[in-house]
C-alpha cells in the first residue's frame, strides 16, 4: 500500500513540475502573465496600448482620443463619446503595466470635447500614462474595483496611452 502511495505521489509531483515548466515556457519566465503583480494593477495587451479603440460593454459603444501633453495636475482628453454615462480615468503606466488611477471625471452619455481630468497626483515629465473608459455602476462614485472598464469587441479595455513632456508651464 505504501509503495502505491509513493508511486502516486511521484506521478502527481512529476505532473505538477511539468505543468509549471509549461507555464514557464508559455510566459517566457515572466510570472506577471499569471496575474497582476499587485491588486490594483492590470496588464496591458501588447501593442494595443497605443491604439484608439472602439468599445462595447452592455451595448455601450465608446471612442476616445488623447494626445501627448505637458505634465501637470490635470490631463486634457481631446474627445470622448459614450452611449451611457461613465468615467474617463487616468492611470500611470510603468514597465508595460497599468497602475494606479490618478484621477477620474464622470461624463454623461454623448460626445464630449476637451475633457479635463483633475488628478490626485500630477503627471511627471517623461512619464507614460493611459486614459481608460469605465462604465458607471450607478452610484456616481468612481471605484476602480466596482466600476468596470468599457471593453472592445476584442476583449480589450477602451484606452489610449500618452506621454508627458516639460512641465505645467511647457518647459
- Tally of alpha and pi helices: 1
**Approximate helicity band:** 10-25%
Helix and strand run: HEEEEEEEEEE
Structural class, from secondary structure content? mainly beta
Query: Low-confidence spans: pLDDT under 50, at least 5 residues?
Result: 19-59
Task: Describe, in short, the structure shown.
This protein is mainly β. The protein has one helix and ten strands.
What would you note in describing this structure?
The protein has 171 residues and is mainly beta. It folds into two domains: 2-34; 42-165, Immunoglobulin-like. Helix content is 15%, strand content 39%. It has one helix and ten strands; from the N terminus they run H-E-E-E-E-E-E-E-E-E-E. The chain has one helix spanning 2-26; strands at residues 42-43, 55-57, 60-65, 69-70, 74-82, 86-94, 97-107, 110-118, 128-135, 159-165. The strands form two sheets. It has a six-stranded mixed sheet with strand order 1-7-6-9-10-4, with no helix packed on it. The longest helix has 25 residues, at 2-26. It starts with a helix and ends in a 6-residue tail after the last strand.
